[in-house]
Structure formats: structure tokens, C-alpha cells
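Reviewers of the previous submission asked for a worked example of the structure-prediction workflow described in the proposal, so we include one complete record here. The input consisted solely of the amino acid sequence. No template or homolog information was supplied to the procedure at any stage.
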Amino acid sequence: MQARLFSRNISRRTFAAGTAAALSAALLPITARADDLKMAFVTNNASEFWKIASAGVHKYEQEAGVKVDIFLPTNGTVEEQNRILDDLMSQGYGAIAISVIAPRAQVSIVNRAAEKAKVICFDSDAAKSKRLAYIGTDNFVAGQTLGQEIVKLLPQGGDMAVFVGTLSADNAAQRLSGVQDAIKDHNIKIVAKKEDETDRNKARTNVENVLNADSDVKLVCGLWSYNGPAIAKALNASGKKGQVLAAVFDEEDGTLAGIADGTISVTVVQKPYKFGYLSSKLMHELLTKGDSALPEGGKIDTGVTVINKDNVADFKAELMKLKS
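From that input alone, the workflow returned the following C-alpha cells.
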């Protein structure tokens, strides 16, 4: 449902009188009431990562007195996310924030949604679509940041493997490009790139298969949030903890536990709380203020932080505050 705008009748007497104040007041849109707004926050899967983003959504709901419906595709497939978008369009949602699973393949459905609602992207952008804005990480820069940490972990170079749900997602492709840019002059070679289609069991077995097949791999890298815990489990199960290093993204509990016990060396964390909070805020403002609420350049970069054994305890404490 679009924000309701009321038009006032201007009487001939008022117009003839030329009262500027009355005319200006008559032409001003009336802000939609909170209970007239239908807003949706659609993630790309149902991982623990999105619980933090959901906390940001709820925080804005409390502050602004609005409701934002959260949708977590349990299977993490394009088809499932497309069905959610179709449902939202048919149910009259006025604003939709979405982390697009396959940006190029989903341009047409995002464009259809944009004809009926204010559509913005977060986390994974669909830059070629008619979405209005993007909120999230500069994923190439984030990849460079992780790549720089990998260079520190492998000062003499060596082979590494990369794991992710799907490389068709812009955030995954851009992170990988950033990693590759950072390691290119340091004798570090990516010998395997494995996709798991957001299947958690496959995420783990992919790692185990690579470790069993190639004893020269010195480091494994996870690009999506659940890849960190999957890597930690695989390293422990294969007896390779301490022998094969791990560098990952995001702050799932299993990842932070892996850093604390030395299974994972480093993680580059985004700021999913901001994804939820700022997406909700922008949707609300787009419905009540119009496109004047759009950020300059159409993007809000939420930044990243490097977490290792030195700061993981402090980070976990701060994370608990955000979730509460």
C-alpha cells in the first residue's frame, strides 16, 4: 500500500482571495499514518546473521511506532525469494527492502516490484534494477580487507580455497574480487571455489572434500556468514585445526567461538544491525516524505570491522547489547 495522500478542495472564495497560506496548505501532502504503512524486510536466507539485522528492524519499529514485516527465505533460493516478492506485491506493500540472491537474474521481478512499491536493496544489491537505493557494505573493499588479513596469515604465500553459497550474488562476487585484488602480488593462489546453494550440510562437506583432496591447501576462506561455522566444524572433524588456517566473513556464534578457540584466525564483520535499522528508516521516510529522503548517490556504506582473538571477547559483549 502506498502512503496515502489526501487532496483538499480549494474553494473559489479562498482562491479568489489569493490567500497564499491557504493555497500552500491545500497543496501539501499529508503524512501517512503509521498504521497505513506496509513495509517488508526480505533477507536472502535464514542464517543467524539476520537475527542481528532483525534486531535493528525492531529498534526502528520501537522508535518510530511502525511495523516492518520480516521475511527469511528458509531455503535461500531465488525461486523462494521471488515467491515472497510476488506475495508482497499482491498484498499491497508500499515499501520493500531486499537482499537480492541473484541480482542479474532477478532484475525483472525487482523492476515489477518497483512499479508498485518503494524498493531498496541492502547487503546484496541489484544495481541494474529500478531499486531506489542500496544500504550495506562496499563488498569489494570488504574483500580487500579480508584479503589483507590473509596476506598476513600467509606471509610466504600458499594455496587457499574459497567457499560460498553462490557466486552469482553480487556481494559474493565482489568480496571474492576484493580478496583476489589484495592477494595477487603475494604468491597466494586460489585453487578451489566451492558453492553450496545455502545448504548447510553441503557447506561443511565442501570444506572437508577440499581438505581431503588437497593437502597443499594452507587456508580456507568463507564468504557468507554460515560458511564460518561450517569451516570450523570441518577443520575440527578433519583434525586440521591449527594446520589449515581460516579467514571468513560475519559474526555468527560458531564463527566467534571458532576465533576464541583458535580454529578461525580472523573474520571481517559487516554491520547487519545497521542494515535492519537504516533500511526500515529509509522505507518509512520514502513513504512519508517521498524521494527527497534518498541518500546522496543512492548508497549508504555501513562499513566493516576486523575481529580476531585480540578483540573477539569485547565484540561479543557489544553484540549481546545490540541483540537485547
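Residues 1-32 have pLDDT under 50 and may be disordered. We consider this example representative of the routine output the project will generate in years two and three.
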